[in-house]
Records
---
Amino acid sequence: MPILLEHVTHTYMPGSAMSQTALADVSLRVEEGEFLGVIGHTGSGKTTLLQHMDGLMQPSSGRVLVDGLDLSVKKERIEARSLVGLVFQYPEYQLFEETVARDIAFGPRNMGVPEDEIRGRVEEAMLLVGLAPEVFAEKSPFDLSGGEKRRAALAGILAMRPRYLLLDEPMAGLDPRGRRSVIELLQSLRERTGCAVVMVSHSMDDIARNANRVAVLDHGALIRVDAPERVFAEPEELLRMGLDLPQAAQLALALRERGVPAPKGICREEEIERYLLEALS
Amino acid sequence: MNNITLGQFFPGDSPVHRLDPRTKILLMLLYIVVVFLVQKTALFLLPFAYVVLVVALSGVPPLYVLRSLKPLRVLLIFMFIMNLFLTSGTEVLWSWSFLRITREALRQAVYISIRLVLLVGGTSLMTLTTSPIALTDGLERLLKPFSKLGFPSHELAMMMTIALRFIPTLMEEADKIRKAQLARGADFESGNLIRRAKSLIPILVPLFVSAFRRADELAMAMESRCYHGGEGRTRMHVLRYTRSDAAAWLITLLMGAAIVAVQAL
């Protein structure tokens, strides 16, 4: 069963002079097990979209269903939150417990998971994000480094074993190695547990390389949802919206502009590499 | 969450808004004294007319001023009843078992109520027509003479300004943290008082941590721009008294003098 958004519109401060449409008639289906990338410039409604999928914001009109649970109903919303894990931007600022292990246990405990199972889940989540339990479990989260904090916060969501993992720019502020390890973690998690990943990111390369589908938001409207090779095949549209292209697509575009017939769908490194090798040989 | 108004400033460009904040602070104090000087019922009309005049000049909707009286309701009723039954007097108007109301008590209760309404209504006009920044500015200047005695007037005003500046930021932050913990299944609404208070820990701890972090960063940013306290510091907007400040002083003093004169007769 999917996450289903049906004609979702969200208006901030309706009726007042400052009223602003953050989402305009968005209909979207997040399939089980898929990797959906969400792109759009700042203020295009990406974060608002994620918050609607977890029932943290309610649509002004339209509705959101998570595995058939209607998020406008309080009881179903609370049930749905154990299916959906939402990782906010800079999640490390939400750590609060005395030890890393207890902070990670916060989510499962709220869900009513029995204590002896929680211990297993905490350990599992810590291993997943690469924090050795024997080293970090009893440390204060405030003594960790920036990257470790980020991973501890991520583990706090993973310990809830979400079927849908939503991430709002999970790599923001990380160094290249940190970015790579987050992406690798997401992919291995998806393979192992079959959970769906919805990732908001400004890094078109990460989106092109990892997402099955890409949703493009512009001023609150969902412009298109399609496979990355088809979305990035229309560079003019994306550039007009103030978005970047993956480096491979940029190179292909530059080649086309100089008369080299690089195909339009190229958006990943290995594709442009293969094309160049073929074209040169 | 973002649309809370700070204090209750009503932006505008009226003669009242343009008054020097120092004038407004001092006149407010003078006004409070005047309201307490009044001892004759009819003379309450003077401060009342004064408030009406200021409201008319300021362009603040009268409804806003009335709204500032709303939180006063409970206190007003309480004070009225207390004064009505507890003030001693000779001329008994009404009595029942141990309760009695005297003419003096009635007078006292009515006066207290009128004074309270005039006080809160009048002083709220100051916060309605003066931005928090202008207010702290004026306060700093007024307290400056005391800095010779070691009173940190500039530091105090700077602290107030910074606090006001960060209220919206911290509210936004609190909202974000609340949502993040909600997403982890936190429940802030059910359970008894102790449980609910405890459920706030996951919000308060990160909020405090971030407030300290922000304070630290702000201090560094200020230092790197050579901030070193109030000494020798010049301002972009220098406060200057104008003709309308003189007019405001004149009107207020006249009202006070009239009341004193009539009562002395």
---
Amino acid sequence: MATSGSAQLPAEAFSSAASSLAVTKVAPRHSALVRVTHWITTFCFFALLVTGIEIAISHPRFYWGETGTVLTKPLFQLPIPSSRRLVPTGYGYVLPDQNGWSRALHFESAWVAVLTGLLYVISGLFTGHFRRHLLPSTADFSWRAVLTSFAKPFRLERPSAAEASSYNVLQRLTYLFVIFVLFPLVIWSGLDMSLAFASAFPWSVTLLGGRQSARTIHFFVSLALVLFLFVHVAMVCLAGFWSRTGAMITGRIGTRKEHT
Amino acid sequence: MINLSRRRLIVSGLAATAGASGLAVAARLAQKHGLISPDHGGIYGIGETLTYASQRLLTRHSLAREFPRSGISPRPFPNELAPLTEEFKRVQAGGFADWRLSVDGMVHQPGSFSMADLRSYPSRSHITEIACEEGWSYIAEWTGVPLSHVLQLVGVQPQARYVVYVSMEPDTWDSIDMADALHPQTLLCYGMNGSDLPVPHGGPLRMRLPRQVGYKNKKFITHLTVTDNLKRFGKGLGCVDAEYGYAWYAGI
């Protein structure tokens, strides 16, 4: 695959090899801290997703405001069976209860994810990771740059060599949105469901519109994170799954191309 | 790996040592200050302990949110109930006149209280939300005698750390630490929305802990034991639910 790519575009392949060689010597594509926190977060995200689904199955109804039970009209109900007999689902069967371990693993992974995230954000601020790699430059904000970065993946166009060592404006904005909007919001809305947390920080529940609103927000932000995951993996595949995944594991990129 | 310099090796070594000893000190301090939950074993133990310890440090004295009367849910939802036992039905037929709450363990004066006794003590009402671990919740006005008042009557010994509460339902018991037992909103609840606590909601007597989820709010309470050690109750995990994988501490 790498051979045919460089055969079609020898000039670009050469410059890519040269630049990535230079990049390898100066600094890795991703720092060790970014790589380690990335994979811990990945691991936790899957644990949180599976257990989150399990917990949602025990009451697949969502409400807005402070309260809501099976006796209340829901905002919406997921068309899935439930693990509780008293939830009206329209299905003639009840799934087994998995909430015990699901809750335990959900909270434990949340702890690991939040602590890892804190380490990532604090070190990112100190090392200039966000400023250098994720904050778009003012030139990036031209409509042309934004539109090009947006349209490229839809034309199934592989990213240019320059993009192997840097992010385009759309990627930068997406990562910043995930790191500084979606993750804080999913943590906040999750914590608000804790009765003890709510007793210490009642205003945080009020700000989100009540306990059930927090639960509904938690659901939708999780959905947005899953959507991000799909797009993220699709883009990694488009750019070259092994090269990009390898870069996130070893820190180096494009080593295979250099040998051709 | 090739670039592993001596300086880097020393720095990482020092950091690892500091981290490990920091963890050891934290564990010792947590043990000393009662921040380790009885079900701290197993793969989820670290998460349980982190949640319990941090919420104890953050919320020891915080009060559960109270709501205006207009916030009361019109139709409180009683969760699924196991079939009532013959013994329960017998006491129920007598209008719960024979219902007793006995208290023993690390107390100066073990006691036994009738519903009339409990109703004669100073009562407290709060309009708070009860939330099930499944996700649903409703608001009601709960009335009862603060558990701290009953504990004061029997005289808790200073080394006591937990209160075990037992339901008339078979194989149903639970426990809370002293922070929750002495919390002003923790009620031995006998009234709901201005009338007697209905049986489906745990009447005549329910443990009401507005800072922990529904399953800690056990129904049909008949017995309390004050203790400093949960090891000798059931499998030693602090509650029967922990034996089925549910956390002992459920403030989250």
---
Amino acid sequence: MIELHDLSVSFDGVYAVRGVSTSVEKGEWVVLIGPNGAGKTSALRALCGLLPFEGRVLLDGRDTSTLGRRDVARLAAFVPQSPETPSELTVGEYVLLGRTPHIGYLATEGRADRIAAERALERLELVEFSERPLGSLSGGELQRAVIARALAQESQILLLDEPTTSLDLGRQQQALELIDSLRADGLTVVSTMHDLTLAGQYANRLLLLDRGSIVADGVAGDVLSESNLASYYGAQVRIVRDEDGIFVLPLRQ
Amino acid sequence: MAVDSVRTRTEPRVRARGVPRMWQLCAGAFLVAALLVGLGIGPVGIGALGIAESAVSHLPFVDLHSPLSSVQEAILWQLRAPRVVLAGLVGGMLAIAGSAYQGVFRNPLADPYLLGVAAGAGLGATIAIAMGFAGGSGQIVPVAAFVGATLAVACAYVLGRSAGAARSTGALVLAGVTVAAFMTALQTFVQQQRSDTLRDVYAWLLGGFATAGWRDVVVAAPYIVVSSVILLLHRRVLDVLSLGDDEAASLGIEVRRTRLLLVAAATLGTAAAVSVSGLIGFVGIIVPHTVRLLVSTSYRAVVPLSLVVGAGFLVFADVLARSVLSPAELPIGVVTAFFGAPFFAIVLRTSRSIR
């Protein structure tokens, strides 16, 4: 579903992402992890054409350099770390904005777009919120509205930059369960995530980035090792494995 | 199950509000009232019915005699009508351009003069006046103002682009401030060199419609109409832009190209408005914000309502400008601020939507 060939991103000659090659299967959830400045967000933004890059990005087999912005938007929806949510816009109006790639540049939404937006709201159990202004929602509800907007885009790929920042632990788990359940509808998910334990629990595969390059790639059990986290994060941790999964516990030095 | 329930329902409930019916009627009534008052009030009073009958009598294939005397007819159609129409066009243009600028720059303080339109127009007009083109039949001053205004914004845009405005609008705004400061300095210099023209320059800068004629309407209207139509068509795109550059781009909008188109359209219209009316402040900020506070912050409401309300507002302001000290005239900028500011303060105080 996603193929990266030698992807590099540079800012004024300084490389944030360097020669990343990998592929993501349909329905997979791949999480990018790595220390601050490792290039996670840059890689994600390059994936959907928000940053100029070198190398090739194929979404659903199509080279994004040959596609217009609107075509890329139909293939991949992107949710930034702190999305702008104009407080006066209603949830319904906000989710309708997700239909933009399907609406003519100067046109307005048709019935099909309103149905798609309503379907996204129903999927995220937000229908009764559709007339409420975004400013009146709680953090967890707002996050659902943002994901609903991305779903209304009806793309096969969902790119999430730190989907759980500013949520409490319970809301984090709910949001991640929700994203996980969307994969049952065939959605392919690539996200960045700070919390390594949660990342390990939800991802099919972890990609550990350091200084722009992939230094580890695999299931949580392989990537989340005490030595990896010591050498790339400079962190002292204990990895606890039991039947419920893998837990990354920080240790005081 | 969930999908079925959507398919079987006849109409999806999700919708964009746009302009609510009630506000369409309110804004329309406000504009009509402004036009009737603007046409009817003056040293020679003309009633609304008389205006209506006279207007109908001028239509082709209508066999109705105007109830007005020929003097009244001349006052109405040669003096007041062009003045009212021009005030409406300029007011609508400044307000809709302000709403677009606020959307493009995502800055509530953006007004149509943000990128140097005012300073550029001032410089152009001052040079033309200093060269002796002020009076007479000359349409040189408006043309010079128009050229100065568009040049100023073009300079600001080029400077901003080279300073990194591709990534943020901050550089563009700073470039606008820089160009405006430079042009104002030049304008002051030219003005000092020819201090005998000070009065004419000052009168032009203050703005107003005292000399408005049909020719001004014909000169400015094409730009204003084209610009307004472009901005109206972008009302949904402006809502998308309100999500920020990144998200707008991830929704398939070519952000830079769209911003350039919107700035160019708003600038051409504003430059045309300024060239026939001088610098009239406050309209571009107060009208869009009044709409936001009273109706909705969605650009689907703000853009069209700003056009209509801005037109009515400036027509009313012009009525006050010419009748308060009649037969003398107040500068219209004084009126827009003197009556606009307290009104806006009341809206600001009483609005529930400010949190």
